[in-house]
Amino acid sequence: MSTIRDVARHAGVSTMTVSRVLNNSGYVSVEARERVEAAIAELGYVPNSLARSLRSKQTRTVALVFTDVTNPFFTTLARGAEDAASHHDFNVILCNTDESEAKQDRYLAVLLQKRVDGILLVPARSRSEPVMLIQRQGVPVVVMDRRVPAAQVDVVRCDSERGAYEMTRYLMDLGHRHIALLTGPEGVSTARDRVLGYLRALSEDGQPIEDAMVVYGDFTQASGYDMAQQVLGLPLPPTALFAANNFIAAGAFRALSDAGLEVPTDVSIVTFDDLPAAWAYEPFMTVVEQPAYDMGYQATELLFARLSGQAPDACQEVILPTRIIVRHSSGSPLVTGGPRDH
Amino acid sequence: MSTIRDVARHAGVSTMTVSRVLNNSGYVSVEARERVEAAIAELGYVPNSLARSLRSKQTRTVALVFTDVTNPFFTTLARGAEDAASHHDFNVILCNTDESEAKQDRYLAVLLQKRVDGILLVPARSRSEPVMLIQRQGVPVVVMDRRVPAAQVDVVRCDSERGAYEMTRYLMDLGHRHIALLTGPEGVSTARDRVLGYLRALSEDGQPIEDAMVVYGDFTQASGYDMAQQVLGLPLPPTALFAANNFIAAGAFRALSDAGLEVPTDVSIVTFDDLPAAWAYEPFMTVVEQPAYDMGYQATELLFARLSGQAPDACQEVILPTRIIVRHSSGSPLVTGGPRDH
DNA sequence: CTGTTAGCGCGTTCAG
DNA sequence: CTGAACGCGCTAACAG
After folding, report:
1. Is the predicted pLDDT of residue B337 greater than 70, yes or no?
2. For residue A338, is pLDDT > 70?
3. B227 with B238: CB under 8 angstroms?
4. With contact defined as beta carbons under 8 Å apart, do B115 and A48 qualify?
5. For residues B150 and B21, what is the distance between their CA atoms, to the nearest angstrom?
6. Which CATH superfamily is domain B160-290+325-341 in?
7. pLDDT tens track for A244-261
8. What is the pLDDT of residues B199-217, one digit of tens each?
9. What angle, rounded to 10 degrees, do the helices at B30-43 and B4-11 form?
10. Looking at CA atoms only, how far is residue B339 from chain A in angstroms?
11. Dihedral pair phi/psi, residue A101, rounded to 5°
């Protein structure tokens, strides 16, 4: 692999002239430029960005650390981040933590070593240590999707509490009085916020809180299956299940099928996070939709504002609205059919 | 951000001793090691892997360049690649090309500049130029999922031709005589191979080939919708649709719904690529399943074999088998119900 | 066991 | 318009 020196020798100029051609900086005579370009083509020269970054102290790369590549919610978010980054002519490194803090910490260590210019983080758990670790190295970071306590950091997220509140209200308006909430890990803010919204809706309505109706688990299909089975086995089982994300919903739906229960005739089921149109052969699930793409895009824009020093000193917290989409998985309890369209 | 020199000064040793502690190489007295470790902790020192890689001429990073982050087929493949890489203590950079050769070429250029140690490539189009570009720089590359013509390169892929052949046979055995194949871009080998398998099944059976029944498009939902509409408008419309991937299938299914056609009563629909269990609330589609995870894992293992010089000189072509999973989207033509289970 | 020297490939500085 | 010298942060090779 040839170096800038090889190119210089080949073109009969100094390395500096080659460098100027490469970076379009300073003045180079037309003749010299042509000779350099010919040498580059002939040698198949590829500049070494390691050396370049070492000198320039910037990598023009940001990292997106997130918790699940297999979840379209996050891949959509990733796409938003990539689109924003490419407008600034930056590259994005995608890092999948699988909801594991250990993996996350390993990635963060590697990324700091690689000297990425900034980090977009969906924290595996809502703790501030990882954020402070990054900040201690002077690397700008924007937290996405989830809150972290007591950290001075920019955050772009959705209003989980409100989304959960509205969906719970919707179910209550249908007549449901026994709604189970199947949520994620207690250490994740979105999992907790969705519980808070749910509880607020219930208590506003003067409804008793049944502890057994709120179950913490993981954002996975397997966990959704288990949690659903658990609440269905209760002496007074729920007439509606509210899943805190799409994977939990898928597992819960399977548990209903296995129990021989019809949706929404016997039990309603609703969830956070829509599936992309390409997934659902027939859109069926009533959902709280979150603007994943926008979240990725806006978080990345905020990161670049920080990188270029254009953002205000104070930390920003951008909270995006959610939207309820009613489909065919929800209906009134004990009434065949419910509010079906067809 | 502190450097190795700061640490050395702080610990009262030379930079070389610090380097030895960091890399666990050579001899360091217990006392010196402790002083160095204390200094590292106190300063929050993070080694600069740019400088390290510049010296050592290896980044311990491989890149996975693939065509669609939002498709679970590829994210599953990515997971296989990541798992294999992490066993070798390597990092993986994920690059999403969106089926665009322009994006792909841009990523490849960046990756070569970043001096990744190897590249795993799902080529956006089945052309050999990008592969040769990489090889010219002496960077090992393994092609995945798709063939490239006339290139001396390792390939790990599935047997698309055979999978398509078997699925077509299955449809013919059900009694179908008018099967439309909705496939991807003509420039992609998997799209073409699936046509070849389809044609072989038809001609083996002595069936006439109807040109209008084979439609090339994109691996997207929108394209699937359009292609389905096109064949449904034919004078003699198909009794079965065979989609070349899951996104095409989703679009085709929607076109059937919009046309008021029932599946599989009126029309059968089958496809390549299963959806992960977490997606399909009710597994419904009859599919040709491909071992995506294994493909990612094995391709990565092959890449590491090359990196360590353990692989045989000759290029390998690993062809993984596909598997047909019959569900409820396929039945006999003109017969209500067909081979439904429940 | 430890330190010194040199150089990885590039770009900044400053003098021609 | 062009080039020489230096250093980014780190480690291989060699002394001591």
Report:
1. no
2. no
3. no
4. yes
5. 48
6. Response regulator (3.40.50.2300)
7. 999 999 999 999 999 999
8. 999 999 999 999 999 999 9
9. 120
10. 20
11. -65, -35
pTM: 0.92
CB A61 within 8 A of CB A117: yes
Is A153 within 7 A of strand D by CB distance?
A: no
Q: What is the pLDDT of residue A296?
A: 98
Instruction: Look at phi and psi of residue B117 and say left if phi exceeds 0, alpha if psi is from -120 to 50, else beta.
Output: alpha
Is the shortest CB-to-strand distance from A29 to strand C under 7 Å? no
Q: What whole-number distance in Å separates Cα of residue A192 and Cα of residue A121?
A: 19
d(CA A193, CA A189): 6
Nearest CB partner across the interface for B46, out of A49, A113, A220: A113
Token pair belonging to A11: 């073109």
DSSP letter for B268, please.
Answer: E
The answer to whether the C-beta of B50 is closer than 7 A to strand C is no
State which CATH number among 3.40.50.360, 3.40.50.2300, 2.30.30.210, 3.40.30.10 fits the domain covering B57-158+293-319: 3.40.50.2300
- Tokens 């210089």 correspond to A8
What's the CA angle centered on A127, arms A123 and A130, to 5 degrees? Answer: 65
Structure tokens at B77: 């493949």
Take residue A180 and report the two structure tokens written for it. 């189970």
